[in-house]
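User: Okay, second chain of the day. Same drill as before: sequence in, structure tokens out.
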Amino acid sequence: MRKIKYILLATLFIFFQSCLDVIEVELEEATPRLVIDATLLNPLGQSSNEQVIKISRTRNFFENEPIPVEGANIRVLDEEGTQVVFQEVNPGEYVTNNFFATYNTTYFLEIEVEGQLYTAEERYTEGSEIDEVLQSFGTGFSDDQFEVRAFFTDDGTGDNFYLFKFFTDFLAFPNFTILDDEFISGNTNSVTFSDEDLVEGESVQIQLHKISRGYYNYLQRLLAQVGAAGGPFQAQPSTVRGNIVNETNADDFVFGYFSISEFDEVIVTIEDQ
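Assistant: Same drill. Structure tokens below.
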């Protein structure tokens, strides 16, 4: 009797397997849009640094490689009209070594590409220092992980916004933490990072950026959508738009943000506790 059951099950498996058809899913192709990575960064206390702007185009679902956009004319101007031109060094990659940033100055981005003019503006302010970095084991939410805690002090003036980046070899992208000074103005504060893959001997690169309100709001919306789990009946997330606008065609929009920030950096190596 048991042998008959096995034969029946095997027969049903072969029957259903033979009935399977390959279904080709046709995905709707969205309108290609520009992706502009215009994040200008200066190490703390340095007025000039190599700056890179990358331009690409959104790709279809089954395409793996980004589509670089060549032949763009890119320049950044200050409030007095002094301009810095970016030169294309690789397809879609534009570089300058002559950008001298000044505190409390508004900068304007202009990009001309394929007959369209894209513009944005951002204000550059003095950054903040990382006061110290402490590490511990088993003292956070998880009792079996290393934890890195970076301390900084808000200067207590105006409205300040901060971005922490934590880089490690095992993360494909840095870990981001953003915060404002609504409840921490003028005080010493800290941000923590921990991960199950953070082990003894691993290095953690920590960056503290002082950013604008607009960039903070943009990152807040972006991180909220990335972190949302969503369900099968949840509405699709809305498009997160940055500060770069198409002056030629108002109905066209691009992905990305033009930002300028000064950052402090500390690298620590995890030690046995």
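The longest strand covers residues 255-269.

User: Thanks, on to the next one.
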